[in-house]
Amino acid sequence: MKGLVEQLTGQGGPFAGVPYDLVAALAMLVFGAIVVFVFVLPVAGVTSWLERRVWARIQSRVGPNRVGPQGFLQWLADGIKNMLKEDIIPTAADRWLFSIAPYLVVIGFVATFAVIPFGAQLVVADLNIGILYITAVTGLVVVGVLMAGWASNNKWSLLGGIRSAAQIVSYEIPAALSIFPIVLLTGTLSMQGIIQAQGWAPWHWFLFHSPFTFAAFFIFFVAALAEGNRTPFDLPEAESELVAGFCTEYSGMRYLLFFLAEWGNLYVIGAIVTTLFLGGWQVPHVTDNPVVLAVLQFVTFFLKSYFWVFIAMWVRATLPRVRVDQLMTLCWLYMVPIAIVNLVATAIWMTIVPAGLDRLVQLAMTALGAAIIVLFFGRVRFHLRRAKLRDVDYYYSPII
Amino acid sequence: MGYFANIKESVATIFEGMSVTFSHFVRRPYTVQYPDRVPIRIQDTLPFRYRGILEVDLEICTGCLACERACPIDCIVIDAKKDPQTKAMMLTRFDIDIAKCMYCGLCSEPCPTGSIHHTSEFEGADYSLESMLRRFVKTPVVAYKPKKGPETDPEIVPILDRGMAYLGDFAGAGEE
Asked: Looking at the structure, do residues A258 and A337 belong to the same domain, yes or no?
């Protein structure tokens, strides 16, 4: 990035004589726009399609499979349809706030892509306060949601907005407290720095660093789901009580923007989790070719983060919505205390555990993780067997 | 329940729930993708006595008007009269308004030959009401006259057999 800008402003470059900072800012904007339109929008759209397919299969349905191969272009059809719909603003609504609220929500989630490291070189800006920046800009979503709820002048919207604000503000605490152990371990807030402190092998990941980071991972993931208004924490959009919560009065493109943010946010959650706990883009050093390496890193990062998107879909298909009091109990009585214990225990761990034992614990934790996965598939096998299915009832292929 | 028991129970139940849903994820969906992606046409899977859209086999219609009288909503209109020269019963009109028909099946029960019967066809969507009025008689035809003894016309035998089987199914329905 820096090299490119120097080339542009240097002698003979197309922008010679233009102030360096201006060109740098423009280059940032152009790259940001490319990231948004080439990566963020399609990922959010495809996630919406994939979520419906995954959900459908778990509920023994088929899901959207008509638009394009296997319904892959469903998201385009939905998007175009929503764009062409009338954008209704209720007469009693606060026009100005009502109009800009969806953009604030989208900005809050798109801005996080500035620091998400897709590879050693593939990052828009490697801020030295990267992870802090993410927690800060996702806070902007609260403003947008609350604004939408208030400006709609509708009791459902208002209740949804207030619930969402209470939920996001509460769950930012355990989320941030679960980031701190990693910051302690690495001594940096930079996303690239956190990834470089890990390795490609699972026992080098912070997920399996100690029992406390293992617990911190789950707390962070649950808190991130709650921040993203995902089931089982989708109280702000609880349709049985609040119609559609803060987006009840929205229609057309503005309504779409809320859902763009929701589905795009899923990927952001996956990306942050991957960066903090799962070794990010780290790949074994198999080649010296920088392009091949960059592609490998990108694919690794993308698959790891998309795996967590899948987990979030799966959780959504499994768990029922919690009550408001349960939501707050979970946060303040369970997750916050455990997160604080994790933080303190990690600090103590760093001082008293010798280097040799450290490696042993990492291997043991990796074995524990593997054991959990094996146990899990054992249970799946048990359920499949108990259903007494014939061979024809299994359908491992996703294509139908 | 204690604090740690709560945590343990939440983790254990979520683990179990996720394994149940994953086991459903690898099963074949139950959805029948009507209308275009079905292994066999739905019409072919329906039982013989399914009350779909009405049809008339004019070859074996006797013109007795039993169905017209039985119809509770008068959606069947038949014109039958004796030809003064040939002394044969002529059918000049046999209309069924599918838009009115409520598929009660009362017309097919009194039919002596099983000429009027329900098919398994149920896709009745159309663009106009007029096209839902089915006119079975295009040109006047001679009504069927039952013979003493077995039927001999080879073209009519299979149609009559199907009609009688249809009637026989009515009679046999209560015996199970």
From this structure: yes
